[in-house]
Amino acid sequence: RDQGMSTTPIKAGTKPAPPPSAAGEMDAVKMERIKASEKALRDTLLGAVRVVIVTLSLITSYQIRLFAVERYGRVIHEFDPWFNFRATQYLVDNGWNKFFTWYDHSVWYPLGRPVGTTIYPGMQVTAASIYHVLTGWLGVDVSLNDVCVFLPAGFSVLACIFTGGIAFEAAVKGRKWSAFTAGCGLMSVLPAHLMRSVAGAFDNECIAVTAMTATFYWWVRSLRDEKSWPIAFIAAVSYFYMVAAWGGYTFVLNMVGVHAAAQLIVNGAKNFSWNLYKAYTIFYFMGTALAIRVPVVGWMPLQSMEQMGPVFVLVIANLYAFVHVQSKKMGEREFSIFRRRVVVYGVAGIFALLLAIVQSGKVGPLSARVRGLFVPHTRTGNPLVDSVAEHQATQGDVYFKYFHFNIFTGAVGMVMCAFHKRSPARLFVAVNFFVAMYFSSKMMRLVLLLGPACAAASAVALAALYEWIADEAMTVMEAIDPERKRAAEQAAAKAKEDVSRAARRAEKKGFGKSTKHFRISDTPAYITKWFRDNPDARKAIAAIVFAVCFSIGTSFLNRCWIMAKGMSEPSIMLRARNRDGSIVVLDDFRESYWWLRDNTPEDARVMAWWDYGYQINGLGNRTTVADGNTWNHEHIALLGKCLVSPELEGHHIVRHLADYVLVWTTRFAGFHGDDLAKAPHMARIAGSVYKDVHPTDFYVDEMGRPSDYMRQSLLYRLHSYGKAADVEPLEKYEEVFQSKNSMVRIWKVLEVDEESKEYVRSGANRQCDAGGWYCPGVYPEALEDVLKGKVDYQQ
Q: Vertex 745, ends 741 and 750: CA angle to 5°?
């Protein structure tokens, strides 16, 4: 017995060593405490980092859009913003009632335009409201011009927040705030958003993007759980603001409809969601009821073919609800037969309803712009629509230019949302990215719609990557501390033993027979196992991924700043370099408009291509023949006919419509996008209504030589007289102004028909309705012979 006992003496005051099982339990408790402490530290640090990133993103979102103000001052940009500013000024000066009964006879001479009923007034109302709050309530000394200049940059901040909110809803639990942070950060600098939101770009899209993201956020928020459907009321109000802001509201309406339909299909009749049904019903009925209150929209939601899709989705939702209720009352076999009958009769009924709608004539056809989104060629067939560069098909390199790496991470996020832990919000992000990607490929202008969709989808993917890198960074002690490393290895061994034990039990029962052959479906399990068993390699990979992401992110930010500077160049002012390399600002356009304002009679009528109408009217304060509203194809065709016809033939029309003709001649200053470059478009538009105009005869060849018809045209002679040796002096026009850098020329029309001018000035040509304010004008009688030759454009 003595030989089997230990002879090692126990020192006084010491405790015997615990048994191995007790030691293991103590280590496990210690490790749990360390992990809990690390998790608390991780959450605190990541929370602080997120707050800093979001704050910097919102500040950057505003500041990155102020380059134009820093370089050129507080100037309204482009063409359309000048009309928007002028309309806002009218609203501020005259009030709400007069604004919506405003028939402007200083535009579209001699027809005029009912501004109040042909404008999306959301932006004007927003700017005027902000102006009144600042000056009236807060006593801030600010001009309306300044409010309009800074409004796009301010609203971009709100768009960032709502885009981050969409990403928050779509991210899985534990990654939501990271997704919100990434969404805000990406949207703040994404060039696809910058393109319409720099300071001075006072156009509808600058607030429409915010309204769109707000609508989408509140829509997905209303689907979070079965009690969220009341939030659809807020989504409907946001949609109403979107309708008032921009004609692109049809995309928002159809996007919500497509998502609702996709969710119905994914859920099926058995898993029908009453929350989805309630939310969509509220959104559609309330949103439509509010939308028809916008004068320019009216009853279009119920009379426009492109807005019929959401109606059919509502019908389908009711069919699903009916089938779901019946499924509770029937057996499996009986329900299967009933469901097939509902599908057959439902599809037949929807097609019958669609046919009845088309045959009734109550619903108009798809517009030329919408049809152009679904045809294989790149043009709509409407020469007026096709003459706008923004309406051309998008080239492939545009996506990298405006999205950089996000076009790839956005696609990854779309796949993640569509197939991994799918939820209503995740399905919306996936569908929105896919639909916006398709439409953006059809029209350059619609790249704008892809911006929020790409930012949200990319944020979901980046949040997952960000959280993984953060986890590896915060558990780096596993690879450094021997004790932690041993504990991690013991945990991995225990997990491996548990898996092996479960596999042996399953094999004994006849399930999952073991095999030595590798299957593709086992790949995720192998990768997961390898990552779990190799913490050193896992953290090394995380470090490499972080370095790559940091490099790509830095490149992305640099590109965004460069793009922001380029997009901040206002078309109304240009910068160029002298021969010595110094930068000079070319202000010829405003110089020309101010000359009209200061040197022509107040009732002077100025003819110019429709592109410049808004600026002439807004800066020069003179009556214009046409502008960017382009509501009357035939009138623009008449303008085109004046310019592409020979001098004497064109003068026969011009003398009844204008006192001056303004021509852009920027090629003489090195910018070739002037009126001579637009002449083929003018000819095509004129030829679509006046068949004596042959568009193919108007061109300038590769050597810069004009065709015979081009050389004889009024436009060419106004443009090139004194610049080209083969242009003889004009008989019916006198040059009265040429800008400093020869970028604009203004000609006075000789032998103006005073009788026609007085006919319009006196108001005798106006045909007012019973209300007294709606008074469209008609052409002078002297133009009847010309107008008899037109054939109204039909597509």
A: 155
pLDDT band at 26 (very low <50, low <70, confident <90, very high): low
Query: Contacts by 678-684 with C-beta closer than 8 Å and gap 24+?
Result: 678/387, 678/609, 678/611, 679/643, 679/644, 679/710, 679/713, 679/715, 679/716, 681/383, 681/386, 681/387, 682/609, 682/639, 682/640, 682/643, 682/644, 682/715, 683/640, 683/644, 684/383, 684/386, 684/387
Render pLDDT for 396-421 as a digit per residue (tens, 0 to 9): 889 999 999 999 999 999 999 999 99
Which whole-number Å values give the CA distances from 733 to 470, 582, 742, in the listed order? 73, 38, 18
Residue pair 680/696 in contact (Cβ under 8 Å)? The answer is no
**DSSP symbols for 575-609:** EEE-TTS-EEEE-HHHHHHHHHHHHS-TT-EEE--
Residue 3 DSSP label: T
| DSSP category for residue 780 | -
- In angstroms, the CA 687 to CA 695 distance is 6
Displacement of CA 674 from its chain's centroid (Å): 28
pLDDT band (50, 70, 90) for residue 515 = very low
Residue at 783: amino acid letter? L
Q: Are 483 and 431 contacting, i.e. CB atoms less than 8 angstroms apart?
A: no
- Write out pLDDT tens, residues 412-466: 999 999 999 999 999 999 999 999 999 998 888 889 999 999 999 999 999 999 9
Strand partners, 605: 623
Contact 88, 124 (CB under 8 A): yes
**CA distances (Å), 56 to each of 63, 172, 182, 201, 556, in order?**
10, 25, 12, 23, 16
Q: Look up residue 431 and give its two tokens.
A: 């569908």
Question: Residue 258 has what pLDDT?
Answer: 96
**Nearby residues of 651 by Cβ (< 8 Å), 6 or more positions away:** 714, 732, 733, 749, 751
DSSP letter (8 states) at residue 19: P
CA–CA gap between residue 330 and residue 342 (Å, rounded): 14
Is pTM beyond 0.90? Reply is no
Do residues 467 and 174 touch, judged by C-beta distance below 8 A? Answer: yes
- Radius of gyration over every alpha carbon of the chain, rounded to an integer in angstroms: 34
Distant-in-sequence, close-in-space partners of 742: CB < 8 Å, separation ≥ 6? 588, 665, 668, 669, 723
Helices marked H in 171-222 — which ranges? 176-189, 191-194, 204-221
Residue 407 and residue 418 in contact, taking contact as beta carbons nearer than 8 Å: no
Distance from C-alpha of 394 to C-alpha of 442, rounded to nearest angstrom? 6
pLDDT number for residue 7? 46
Tokens of 142: 């600010």
Q: For residues 44 and 36, is the Cβ–Cβ distance under 8 A?
A: no
pLDDT score for 700 = 81
548/62 Cα distance (integer angstroms): 28
Residues 6 or more apart whose CB falls under 8 angstroms from that of 118 comprise 296, 629, 631
